[in-house]
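Request: Not sure, any thoughts?
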Amino acid sequence: MGTQTSREYHDESTISIPSLKRAIISLVVLFFVYVLNQTDRQVLPVLIPAGLRCSYNSSDHQCVSHSMYNATLQNCDPEDCIEFDDTQQGILTGVAFTVMYTVAGIPLARVADKTSRVVVLLVGCFFWSLMVFFTGFAKTFWELLLSRMMLGIGEATCNPAAYSLIADYFLPLHRAKALSFYHFGIYLGGAIGYALGALNSVICWRWVFFSLSILGFLMVLIAAFVLRETQGESTSLLQYGSYSIKETVVLLMTTKAYVILTSAAAIREIGGYALGTWLATFYSRRFGQTSVDYGVNIGLVVLFGGTTGCLIGGYLADRYSTNKRPAKAYVIAVSQIVAAPCVVAPLIVPDVTASYGLLFLAYLTAETWVGCSAAIVQDLFAPSLRAQASAVYIAVGTIIGGSIGPSLVPLILKHSHWDSCGMGMGYALMTIVPTSYLISALLFFLVGCQMTEEIIISDETIRLTYESSEHDCSMHESSTEIESVSLGSRKSKKRRKSYSRSFTASQDETQLYS
């Protein structure tokens, strides 16, 4: 990993792990916050072909009959649609959100690391819900663009704070499963977002945004009541170590596994964002599906296919990483290789029913990577750096994937002269998505290879104490072998066994295994 200077924990400091019941309840609340986060993000690309975007002066009128389009606006004023073209749609669903999400993410994560992660998350949730509310009033492309950009700032608070809290709530042995469950919110939120497209046949699209904003304000109240920092009131996060900006950058950049992992995730996100933002439009143009048809079907595919894949990935990663450190990375690499041909099939078959069935298989295989990759980030760093490491990881993936992926589709259609209706959009997606999967698979494999190399372990130790609100029972006697490497001499190693309910472990080793 290279020579690096880190500010260690104080010898007598303790990290208090909450009881299992408390940890699970907190995880569930974080999960629902993330569901709302993903729904608010995903609903715009779904509502665009459902009537938010005007059909005239656009590519849509070439692909969808005028009567079908008017059916989507029967509950809205005729002037409620907003006029913009394919390129502007790519900006709205890609660059507008991701640039602000990235710019705001890293400083907000630093604030979370130095102050309270819970407070940062609550303020962010309130702010992005307010932006969703304002989106419902948008009447021009520029108003919609501004609301989308401000939404990116608010949503940037969610994952860094949540990742860091979950990493403190759960020991490394169960961290991939916990984060995989948390990332189930991507698929439930995405499914709800697609399903909300069907509501456009019942209510105007503006009321979809108003309803989501009200749910967001309620979620802020629930999260404020449940979520707590893992440290006691008298123990500040700063006590566990505080890194300057320069130290943080050096530490992240000299961690080779982290650099490769972040690059792999960014390339993988290109395909993910391209597919997610244009899938509804693909089914609308290619098969003439209404918002009710593609909203329900894609929603079910994302919910069950994506969820099952994510949970399977977390289970396999935790199972095999017990004895093999690189297992998480290898699980991701294999899954993406399998997913590449699977994602091509639904884009080329002529039957819409078969396409939805094959899309389920594509999501099942492709989405195993999310929780495993996030868990690797948490494994690599101490608690005082996790939120910032997560923020950089998310920011790079979002700015590259979210900016390039959605914008590549109209760019390819424009320069390839493929028909934007029919198979044209399918060809564009087939060019982007499988390629990103395969390249990322190679990089994830390299992450696994890098994790097998020797890592410098600090002499400093942290004491893990377990709190139980239920009862005070003794744990089964456990034996943990720990390798402690002296900072003064890298070759000096020793092994020891410890038996107790409260045990010590080296700082870096504790990040990886319990």
Remarks:
- The longest strand covers residues 461-466.
